[in-house]
Amino acid sequence: MFESAELGHRIDREQYRQREPALRAALLQAQFDLGAQKRFPVLIVIGGVDGAGKGETVNLLNEWMDPRHIDTHAFGAPSDEERERPRMWRFWRVLPPKGRIGILFGAWHTQPVLDRAYRRIDGDRFEQQLQEIERFEQMLSDEGVLLLKFWFHLSKKDQKARLKSLEKDPLTRWRVTQEDWHRFEKYDRFRKVSELLVRRTSTATAPWLVVEGLDECYRSLTVGETLLAAMRSRLDAQGRTAPAGGKAEAAMGDAASGKAALGAAAGMMPVLPPIDRRDLLSMLKLDQPMTREVYEPALELLQGRLNRLSRDTKFRQHSAVVVFEGSDAAGKGGAIRRLTAALDARQYHGIPVAAPDEAERAQPYLWRFWRHLPRRGHFAIFDRSWYGRVLVERVEGYCSEGDWQRAYGEINEFEAELDAHGTIVVKFWLQVSKEEQLRRFREREQVAFKNFKITADDWRNRKRWNAYQQAVCDMVDRTSTSVAPWTLVEANNKLYARIKVLATLVERIEQAL
Amino acid sequence: MFESAELGHRIDREQYRQREPALRAALLQAQFDLGAQKRFPVLIVIGGVDGAGKGETVNLLNEWMDPRHIDTHAFGAPSDEERERPRMWRFWRVLPPKGRIGILFGAWHTQPVLDRAYRRIDGDRFEQQLQEIERFEQMLSDEGVLLLKFWFHLSKKDQKARLKSLEKDPLTRWRVTQEDWHRFEKYDRFRKVSELLVRRTSTATAPWLVVEGLDECYRSLTVGETLLAAMRSRLDAQGRTAPAGGKAEAAMGDAASGKAALGAAAGMMPVLPPIDRRDLLSMLKLDQPMTREVYEPALELLQGRLNRLSRDTKFRQHSAVVVFEGSDAAGKGGAIRRLTAALDARQYHGIPVAAPDEAERAQPYLWRFWRHLPRRGHFAIFDRSWYGRVLVERVEGYCSEGDWQRAYGEINEFEAELDAHGTIVVKFWLQVSKEEQLRRFREREQVAFKNFKITADDWRNRKRWNAYQQAVCDMVDRTSTSVAPWTLVEANNKLYARIKVLATLVERIEQAL
């Protein structure tokens, strides 16, 4: 894997001097076009061995281009706010928006490689993390991020020489730490682990480019020209069908302004309703009995249990993400209020999910949900959620079929990360019958202080009842996992629905503690 | 001060039951209107003694209204990310955007009161903090925030009884901590300090409402009806001239879409140019000599010094905010690049300031700068800054005269907070002559890879040259303080300007360490 990067690649300084000015001007132009188009972000990931010129190259990129439009991030020990969220949160929060360049100095691969080289994790766990990385990078790529990964390599001999020479110079001595030498002692192990990483996470959409770090002129030109070619190719593809990522990006652009093409992408498994018309929702018995006499004491009991759980010292090591989805007028708001009434207001945040704002539109789809993940000991209550992509966006054609089809996998991955961190994920689908919905719509139109709850959108959605039902069934089939199962709530009787929601939530938290 | 809140205020339960449903419906309606208008945010600050029903009242507000559109925040020990920024950062980051309600459970007053009651600070320091609070709240109010402050009070006897009764009940025992009793022992001292706080920070725009906390029905109705009246009054003032805050708000609304009225507000001190036409800028000798032979070694020397300073262990206890303002084509970008070239890319962030985005428009003016404040050991380099308000927004009439007039004071306050935290604030105004600017515009139009730097805005601004110069002189006069002085840079010679910028920065950092 690294053999080609131990050939002693060199460019003589004269040649470098000749090529550098044009490269620099072209990079600056590409950066300007990127900012003007605002169609996609550029994310540069830097990995590799110590002393191979990573820092110098990043500084050089900032010198060649306009540093005001580049964000460079390094990752030391996570802050306490980062430790309280899933591992990937610290990377999500620094993703560059469309039009900007982000440089990550070390990234999601760094910790797994260290852990594996120091044998803190076994091969299986490492393999699992490689798969997570692969899926994450695939998602970035599908979302239109131009992801460029550079791996800086030095042979064992060269690394030793380099560290020594840095140490000798009083101006660079500070850069060589004990840690560097410590890692150098484990060179062979690091090499083996890194090779596995580079091999396994070099996919068609986001390959690693291994760069020999020995010669400054060579590595600088290699990185600069690769970056330029990649940016130019994506920038100039405007209007034409772009390769990987291009479709998603075009669709996102359209989604912001209206509709995307609905036509099934070629080669994609078509989604059909069950031939016998039996599906999860049609099997539900929506009218469930529950009288106020049963409801009142049951509610009080469950709220008491939930309140005690929320104050349990064990819950301080967890957090909860509660998702409410459902037909319009299914009673989500009422169910949420019975839940929050049991909690201290300082302990939860409600997140009503509507159209994404400007900053959110400039990021991958899931970004706007990552930013609301709760700290330990807290609840985040989502009124509608990331499932919008496979519900309203699918049905109304706000995203392409490719986008919502891949969303199932991305969502499962997201929820698995939450679960791995100790976040309890509880998801409710509240279902009412078509008749009950109509009754509630009419009622809302008549009662004065309820009538702001009924909008033109509600009537429009109702017309597509069957399409929505189909989307819900697919969603449940594909995203009800052992770590984050869906609970379908028969909601024609509001009292019954609220009790089922609370009972389920209490049960899930009790299991988790 | 607290006498009226020790009268044993009561409302009987029957009366409460009668009034509560209408209040609740009206609050819900007001909350809906707030979200629909999106003209201003509501910020509710809760203070007062332990056991006086603060938590219960906040939970009740969440129950009465829609908890999905209320954000409640409590403030424990600051996180490490918070500790690395000025004291007020943690409050700025949770300010509700227009259209939402934020509830702060304890706020900027909490720490000063504790510190003073426990005699960790003296009376002078406390007084100074009260003044800071007053100015901060005045700013919120001027920015259109509907700020409501409730102080929950109990007499010494009542507090003791209340804490005991909470302790007796197994369901509420957890709520009484050692800390509560510890504070109770100091009741008299807390009372005295609180009284001073409440008196000194009860201004016309943001008075404290002292609420007797003994009777649940009384305190709930008092808070609920006050909140309702305040919201309704602002909501219904739409279109009409609103009282305090209303003008600012209207101006902000206009600023987003275009222009605000420029007419001088009645009673405001008019801003006139000096009668003898002598001003700071006209006294500058813009053509300063500097040859490349002098420049090259000087640049290298200064970059070396800056680099060493940036790695000084003492700098890790500080951070730096560097502000670049200047005429168009004055060479800000070039100066910034000579600066960043001396730093490691991981240590700085460039923040190009353009039009505010959607989230930023929904917040007080300074919010979008607070969010970019650097962590310890880091540089934030602003290419244009908060001074936009007193430059382009003033000259082009994007905000009202009242807004830019008060901005001087708000900016000084902001920079003083940065300084108090150990952040080094360095501000540059780069000035070129009108002739030199024209030469550079023409040059930029001709050179291919520079021509993206010249826009219609640049030509437009040039037409208002004199108005801009006047605005700059006023800005320097009013915001050049001992903690954050302006450095005027004669920039007709780019080499000279870059050296002056670097030398000044190096000197300021050396002084601070």
Q: Could you explain the architecture of this structure?
A:
Two copies of one chain form a homodimer. Residues 241-265 of chain A have low confidence and may be disordered. Chain A has two domains: 3-244, 3-Layer(aba) Sandwich (Rossmann fold); 292-512, 3-Layer(aba) Sandwich (Rossmann fold), CATH 3.40.50.300. In chain A, strands 2-3-1-4-5 form a five-stranded parallel sheet, with helices on both faces. Chain A is 50% helix and 12% strand. The first copy, chain A, is α/β, with parallel strands linked by helices and 513 residues long. The two termini of chain A are 45 Å apart. The first copy, chain A, has 21 helices and ten strands. In chain A, α1 (13-37) runs parallel beside α10, α5 packs antiparallel against α6 and α6 runs antiparallel to α17 (401-421). Chain A has helices at 13-37, 54-64, 80-83, 89-92, 110-117, 123-142, 156-168, 178-185, 187-200, 216-236, 246-257, 292-311, 332-340, 358-361, 367-370, 392-396, 401-421, 434-446, 456-463, 465-479, 494-512; strands spanning 42-48, 70-74, 101-105, 146-153, 208-212, 319-326, 348-352, 379-383, 423-431, 486-490. In chain A, 41% of the residues are buried.
Q: In one word, what is the shape of chain A?
A: elongated
Percent of residues in helices of chain A comes to 40-55%
CA(first)-CA(last) distance of chain A:
45 Å
Main sheet: strands, sense, barrel of chain A: 5 strands, parallel
Give unreliable regions of chain A as ranges. 241-265
Largest interface: A-B, 47 and 47 residues
Strand content of chain A: 5-15%
CATH superfamily placement of the largest domain in chain A: P-loop containing nucleotide triphosphate hydrolases
Q: Number of helical segments of chain A?
A: 21
Whole-number radius of gyration of chain A? 26 Å
Average pLDDT, all residues of chain A: 89
Spatial order of strands in the largest sheet of chain A: 2-3-1-4-5
What is the level 1 CATH name of the largest domain in chain A?
Alpha Beta
**What oligomerization state is this entry in?**
homodimer
Query: SS-based structural class of chain A?
Result: alpha/beta
Number of domains of chain A: 2
- Give the tally of β-strands of chain A: 10
CATH architecture of the largest domain in chain A: 3-Layer(aba) Sandwich
Per the CATH scheme, the topology name of the largest domain in chain A is Rossmann fold
